[in-house]
Specification:
Radius of gyration: 12 Å
Strand content: 5-15%
Oligomer: single chain
Number of helices: 4
Strand order of the largest sheet: 1-2
Distance between the termini: 23 Å
Shape: globular
Structural class: mainly alpha
Number of strands: 2
Order of helices and strands: HHHEEH
Helix content: over 70%
Length: about 80
């Protein structure tokens, strides 16, 4: 899984925690990347069963992966 896909999973989780709606445009702005890149990555994540692309929401499997990735990122920051 590439970095954009990982960032999208974590971002979807974080947006949900802040009660902000997720969309391709919101995610592109949040991550500072092109909207088309986000749309392609969301499609890949949907094919993997980690999100529902039409609603920009995590599946249960995607939620578990996002929480795991977020924990690893936080642990990496603490170690640095």
């Amino acid at each position: 899984m590439d970095n954009l896909n990982k960032s999208l999973l974590v971002s979807l989780f974080e947006l949900a925690q802040t009660d902000r709606p997720a969309s391709v445009n919101a995610l592109a702005e949040w991550l500072g990347v092109d909207r088309r890149e986000v749309a392609c990555a969301l499609s890949e994540l949907d094919q993997q069963g980690l999100i529902r692309a039409e609603t920009c929401r995590l599946t249960l499997r995607g939620l578990a992966r996002a929480v795991s990735l977020r924990g690893k990122r936080r642990a990496g920051r603490m170690a640095a």
